[in-house]
Amino acid sequence: MRLSIASAIACLSFVGMVAADDATASIRKPTNIPAENLGSALQSLAQERGFQVVYLSETVDKLKTPGAVGVFTADEALKQLLKGTGLSFHYLDEKTITVVPTPLAPRVPKHESPSAASHSGIDFA
Predict the structure, then answer these.
(1) Which pLDDT tens digit goes with each residue over 38-60?
(2) Which fold has domain 25-101?
(3) Whole-model pTM over 0.70
C-alpha cells in the first residue's frame, strides 16, 4: 500500500513538472535577435530560453535569419527565426529542440483531360 501511494505521489509530481515546463514555454518574453547567421541566432535564443538546440551545421550555418524582435513565446520566436529558411523545428523532449528541413507537401498528380493529352502527342482511339 505504501509503495502505491509513493508511486502516485511521484507520478503527480512528474505531471506537475511537465505542466510547469509547458507553462514556461508559453510565456511571452521580450526577444531581440537581429537578422544574422541562423546558427548564431538559434544559439542566442536557446541560451536566453534555457533549452538545447540540435541541428546539422552544414544545413544551418549557411543560412541567414530575418531575426526575431518583439515579445514572443519560445515557439513563436523559433518560427520567426526559421521564417523563409525551409527549416522547421520539433521537440525531442521538453528542453531539446531539433531543427530540420521542412518536409515537402506530397504532390498530387494532375489529371489531364483528353484534349490536353492529345495535344501532348498522346492519341486516343
Answers:
(1) 999 999 999 999 999 999 999 99
(2) Phage tail protein beta-alpha-beta fold (3.55.50)
(3) no
